[in-house]
Amino acid sequence: MKPELRFIVNLRWFLSSYDGLKTDFPILPKRDLMSTVFTHPAIPLAIGLGINAGLLSSKSRSSTVPFRLLLLGCLFSVLPDLDVIGFELGVSYWSSYGHRGFTHSIFFAIVCGLTMMHWSQWLGASKKTVFLFLSISMMSHGFLDSMTYGGLGVAFFWPFDTTGEFMQWRPLPVSPIGIDRFFNRWGAYVIKTEFRLIWIPAMAVVIVATFAGWLFAVIRKFRKTRSSQSGPH
């Protein structure tokens, strides 16, 4: 399908889904919709860099996020979308093993985080830091997907409940799965929206944390200097 027609198809799908309009245009299958893989790493990057920047004034480095762990967190943030392989294997999109199914669940993220604790020494962080950072990084994927206005909901509570859930606030447009379906005007609109609603706030978190870490470091140094000057001579 030509990019121009695909853009019109997605636009008509959005209008028909939310305004109750009927259309005889072909509609993209719901299994073709997701958040972009480029944006999911924004969350672990903001958390990891924010923590590191905020701990500038701390003598302890046990709670920081080393570079290896940060990269792994970015990878974990996109791993849930490996479930798209199920499309080629005949797994139904509506199955709990399909897209936005069990790999997007909180349970799956916790299990993966617990598993990676074994490699905490290689990752250069405490087991607690590895578990929390990687689990949250993977959980963030489902939360972003649940903020899109398309496709099925996210099975957050699998295996206890396979119901697909959405957030009340769903400002993110959905992105087609596949590079060949992404680089068109609709894809550009998706990237622009995600940059405005996700990347800019994520960068703001890092900037604020960096400033806070620098400020606390200055205060700590000032107090130490003042204490040494006011000591006995």
- The number of strands is 2
Q: Please identify the structural class as seen in this structure.
A: mainly alpha
Number of helices: 9
Strand order of the largest sheet: 1-2
Tally of individual domains: 1
Distance between the termini: 83 Å
If you average the pLDDT, what whole number results?
A: 80
Low-confidence stretches: 1-33
In percent terms, what proportion of residues is strand?
Answer: under 5%
Topology as H/E string?
A: HEHHHHHHEHH
Largest sheet: 2 strands, antiparallel
Radius of gyration: 22 Å
Helical amount among residues, as a percent range? 40-55%
Question: Can you tell me the overall shape?
Answer: globular
Would you give an account of this structure?
- By secondary structure, the chain is mainly α.
- Helix content is 55%, strand content 2%.
- The chain contains nine helices and two strands.
- Helix 2 (42-54) packs parallel to helix 9.
Concise structural overview:
The chain has 233 residues and is an all-alpha fold. The protein is 55% helix and 2% strand. The chain has one domain (32-217).
How are the SSEs placed, and which strands pair?
Blueprint (H helix, E strand, L loop, with lengths): L2 H16 L14 E2 L7 H13 L12 H12 L6 H4 L17 H11 L3 H4 L3 H19 L29 E2 L2 H4 L2 H45 L4
Antiparallel strand pairs: 1-2
Helix pairs in contact: 2-3, 2-7, 2-9, 3-7, 5-7
